[in-house]
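Aim 2 progress update. The chain analyzed this quarter is reproduced below.
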Amino acid sequence: MLVGHELRPADCILVLGSHDIRVAEYAIDLHQAGYAPWLLFSGGVVQRNAALNVFWDATEAEVFARLALEKGVPEDRILIEKHSTNTGENLRYSRQLIDSLGLDFRSFILAQKPYMERRVWATALKQWGEGDYIVTSPPMSLRDYLNGELPREAVIQHIVGDFQRVKVYGENGFQAPQKIPAEAWEAFERLVALGYDERLVTP
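Predicted structure tokens:
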């Protein structure tokens, strides 16, 4: 699920919508460390997920931007795209916003959850084509990620669902196809057999 891109400076950090506030915290840290002069938060979903114990009062982009302001990021360095409801729209609507503002961003850091790196990469290849962008996520082990504040079982459900989407969305044209090792798919099938099937999509 990780793509292993090496972090490098860019014109803009694009933070894709998520229920995990740690993604926003990580992106804000990157901005404040000088990796990019702009932060663009994208996400129009108001997260209300009982399984994850997440109940927000605004869209993902607005919640993330609020956190950035609280941490001292200047308001004039924050962009908000609050209409997208999936990864493809995150990228498409963000590009439209950038173009509408006449901003000449040529390089990007795309930030998401660790287990969504490959899906973001594959979606960017489909939506944007080849370009100067990398995908990154909070640097933590799977063990640490599962032992965070979000409920472990619910997070595993999301991981299994996102893994399946890498295959299904590559086949139906939503994103660029990705090679999935046989042993990885077998592990996915074992997890589904154990009951981790709540986030699966119909192929």
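The longest helix spans residues 152-172. The mean pLDDT is 96. These observations will guide the mutagenesis experiments scheduled for the next reporting period.
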